[in-house]
Structure formats: C-alpha cells, structure tokens
Amino acid sequence: MNPATEEVVGQISLGSAKDVDKAVTAARAAFATWSVTTKEERLGYLKKILEIYNRRTADLATAVSQEMGALKTLATQIQVPIGAGHFAEVIRVLESFSFVERKGNHLIRHEAIGVCGFITPWNWPLNQVACKVAPALAAGCTIVLKPSEVSPLSAHIFAEIIHEAGLPKGVFNLVDGDGPGVGAAISRHPDIEMVSFTGSTRAGVEIAKNAAETIKRVTQELGGKSPNVILKDADLQTAVVAGVSSMMMNCGQSCNAPSRMLVPAELHDKAVAIAKGVVEQLKVGDPNAEGATVGPLANARQFEKVRSMIKQGIEEGATLAIGGPDRPAGVTKGYFVKPTIFSNVRNDMFVAREEIFGPVLCILPYKDEEEAIRIANDTPYGLAGYVWGEPKHAAQVASRIRAGQVAVNGGALDFGAPFGGFKQSGNGREWGEFGFREFLEVKAVLGDTTTTAAA
C-alpha cells in the first residue's frame, strides 16, 4: 500500500517455510565455491553491483517513496544513496583486509561463516539490506534475504541489480514473506549459520529463541529511545533546531532517532518555544508534493500505534506543546499524523520509556549534569545518543552515555563507524570493518610453517 494514498501499488506472493528450504539449499550449494573465490573476484562483483545500483537510483527512489512514504527528496538524497555508501565502504574494507595473519608459531585464518539469513525492516529498506548484503558477499558468505513484506518493492529492484551483476547461481536468494511464515523459518533453519535481524526488540527476542536451537550466530539491531543531552554551555538554538529536525526526518521512523531531548530545567521553556517554532514550519503532505517536509507513517498498523501512544502520553499528564493524535487539518486520506512535541516529560512516563517510532519528541528538564546522565542511561535501550555543548565538555559527557554510537555536536555520518546497540538494543555491529568481521569465523592453524600471511 502507498501510505500517502492508501492505494495498492504492488503485489507480492508470501513465501513459506518450503520456499526458505529451497533458498537455503541453493545457498548451501553455492557456498562451496563462492567461499573460496579470491578477494579480487569478489571485489569485481561488488564494484559491478555498485555501478548498476547507481544507475538505478531513480527506480529505487520511486519504489521507496511508494512503499513506505518517504519524501521523494529523502528517498533520492538519503534513503537510496546510503545503500550505495555501504557498498563503497565494504569495497574499501575488502581491498585492505588480510584473511591470513601469522601470530608467532600459528596462523590465523578469517573464513566466511556460511549461509546467512537476513530479516530486514521497512523504515530504511535499502540501508538495512545493503549494510548486511555487502559485507556478507565480501566475506564469501551466501545469503537468504527476507525483506519486510510492508516495503518489498525496493528489495525486488535490488535483486534485479544482483542478477544483472552476474553473481553465481544461489549466492543471493530473496524470499518474500511475513515473520511467522518466513522469518521464523530462517531463524530456526539448521543449515543457516548466521541470522542478522533489524527490527523491534520484541521480535528480536523471538528470533534469538528460534536460533538458539541450532547455536547459530545472531546479530541484532533493535529498538532505541535515544537521549539528546543539551548541556548548559551548548548553543541552545542550534542544538534544539538540529534535534527536532533529526527527530522528524523520515517521519520519526528511525531506530536511532533522538526522541528524548534533555535540557537544563531553567532553559526548558525556551527550548520548548524553539522546538515549537521548528514544528510550526514543517509541512505534512504527499511525499511528491512541492514543499512537503514530513510524509506519512509507513503503514496502517504504525499509524494506529503512534496515534494511540500520543493519546496515552496526554492521558498520563505529559504537556502537549504542539501536535496531537489527529490527522493534520484538511487531511482525510493517508497515514499522516501531526508532528508532536511533549514537554515537561518525566522519564518514568510511558512516552519516555517506549519507542514510539513516529514524529513525536519528548522534552525532559534536568536539574544538573549528573541527573542528565542518569536520565539518559535510564532506559532498557542503548542504541544511540547525542550530546551538545562546548566540544571538550560534550565529549566527556558522551563517554558516559551507555549507547553503541554517540554523536557530539551533530557529528557527521561515517560509513566506517560501527553501528549497533548496548542492552536491549541488540548485539553485534554493522557498518565498516566491524560489520564486515561479523561474517567471518576465526581459525587458528598450529604448526603451519609453509604459509605466509596473505591478503
């Protein structure tokens, strides 16, 4: 469904456990030869994939916009290019990586882990497909991918790109399906050595349980409720504007969104006024409409969930500074909600504890820096964090935030920086060399005096 129009834009066939079996059989057969290809051969395929991917940018952007409602500008400028960025980074990593190292009187060999099962979400569809597929191919693994059944169109184009690049039969396999029908079959399949999942913490728990029976490696990038700590010595205007803008991007549907803004109590009202001013300038509308800055939520289920959570926040006493659970004025169709800000939020409130996954920002006042750090870390999640202030001071506070990635003063995106969470935000890392190494097993070879370290 196109979430902006509530009209059907495509149809897929939901797969089954039998389809997963067929895909795994193909991937298992292909692994025998793909895993022993040379680094140069795999680099050639990766470069070809990147070339074709860049040629099909417009097709991919249209698909992302139609399937999950991303603004056309967001799809074209960020959603699609971020996938290309992962392939470019993995190519860089592979070019300099040594698969054989000598350590004293033994060798260390880094070998592909095997057949990998990938289960990806709907909110950043190409980002999550690319940051898993690229390093897995580079490592010599074969793949069974289940994209989200809510946003499968871009993944289908991605499969066409893989096919055109000429990868050997069985190296890459795509099976459409839902979680119970295909996701569970992937996570428990005895011939899959690794499962990489991105999605909710609740689903991550089920995947880990299914995978435990066959002792496979499981990496997970799960939920978040990321703190955005604005210190007294920060430029308040810059920090609040950046925080609100980041929160509202992709309609708030990002696991690392800065959804809890922590501000000094004496600056709370000023921060709220600045934040309201930013939201008042936002234009909710069709992703293709001129001037639209916030699109729809990705699907009907998310639409109802976010509206319900906004209502719950009002009921429990958080101050509704702007927005609310209703559609914007004049909007009668599409999964659009008002960008919403809650102020005077306590960290024990529902809206401060639960991942809303919509354009909803909570502003929490704090008395002093120690309380800010305590509040920031008082969450079951630990995916990301943000700190604004005098550079040295902000860096000191950032070192105390319990999260897998922390940005200081709007630190820029870096494809080489590892991404992943502490606590219930997951385990393992994606992006760059850290993400690449997740797909390798380590073998120690004793007594081999004939082999030298090699690339």
Walk me through this protein's architecture.
The chain has 455 residues and is an alpha/beta fold. The chain has 2 domains: 17-222 and 421-446, 3-Layer(aba) Sandwich (Aldehyde Dehydrogenase, Chain A, domain 1), CATH 3.40.605; 227-408, Aldehyde Dehydrogenase, Chain A, domain 2 (3-Layer(aba) Sandwich), CATH 3.40.309. The chain is 42% helix and 17% strand. A 7-stranded mixed β-sheet has the order 10-11-12-9-8-13-14, sandwiched between helices. The model has no long low-confidence stretch (mean pLDDT 97).
* Highest CATH level, the class of the largest domain: Alpha Beta
Taken from the alpha-carbon principal axes, the silhouette is: globular
Low-confidence stretches: none
Helicity, as a percent range: 40-55%
CATH architecture descriptor of the largest domain: 3-Layer(aba) Sandwich
Spatial strand sequence of the major β-sheet: 10-11-12-9-8-13-14
The averaged pLDDT comes out at 97
How many helices? The count is 15
How is the main sheet built?
7 strands, mixed
- Radius of gyration from CA coordinates: 23 Å
CA-CA gap between termini? 47 Å
Structural class of the secondary elements?
alpha/beta
Total separate domains: 2
Compute the number of strand runs: 16
Beta-strand content bin: 15-25%
Query: Could you name the CATH homologous superfamily of the largest domain?
Result: Aldehyde Dehydrogenase, Chain A, domain 1
CATH topology tier name of the largest domain: Aldehyde Dehydrogenase, Chain A, domain 1
